[in-house]
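#structure-requests
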Amino acid sequence: MEQTAKVRTCLGFNGNGTEAVDFYISLLPDSYIENSFGPNPEEPPLVIEFTLAGAPFMVLNAGPRYTPSEAASISVLTKDQKETDHLWDALTAKGGQAGPCGWLKDPFGVSWQIVPELMPRLLSSPDKAAVARTMNAMMQMGKLDGAALQAAFNTPQ
């Protein structure tokens, strides 16, 4: 098995990695399976290499000892609220769990951060009061609302 990327994030699953990869690549453009390998063709592949929105990943169907945790997450910068809503809704449906401040867990237990691309710009502003208002607004949200974050940034108290 030849790897096409020098560095890859590896996610451990308990046999349902193929289902997770198929779901993930359906969500974002420039996503596809590159390669899969397993010693037994009657079982799920042990390793699946895939690209998610241009970023290289690997799934290891390693069994119950290796399960996803909040210690690692997939962060997606969304271009607009429509994309934020689409990803949030898809990832929290069918057993996913909404969390605070743009965080969620998908139906497979993998943590994600769905972040409007304006957020890093707002939070890196030299206007500390505007940054504080934006952070305060974000702390009250589950799914991030770009318009509400921008309004908090722009509205002095």
